[in-house]
Design a protein that fits this description.
With about 70 residues, the protein is mainly alpha-helical. The chain contains four helices and no strands.
């Protein structure tokens, strides 16, 4: 699953520096997980309501929910 460069930049623009560092670090850690665990993280993102057509602010809300107490940490 990919969020896309344009949407990703729009999401980052909504964050402050400390949140960017924390979220980017967490997302980078997902790439080191096994493919099975990565699939689980993406499934959790979908379960929280993520959809490709979401506005950046809506996607950020879902990303924040995921990073506050899930496998992404």
């Amino acid at each position: 699953m990919m969020i896309g460069l344009e949407k990703g930049q729009s999401i980052l623009a909504l964050m402050d520096d400390s949140e960017i560092k924390a979220i980017v670090s967490e997302i980078q850690s997902v790439t080191s997980l096994s493919p099975k665990v990565q699939q689980s993280v993406w499934a959790e993102l979908k379960e929280l309501g993520y959809e490709d057509k979401m506005k950046p602010s809506e996607a950020l809300t879902i990303i924040r929910l995921l990073s506050n107490g899930s496998k992404i940490r």
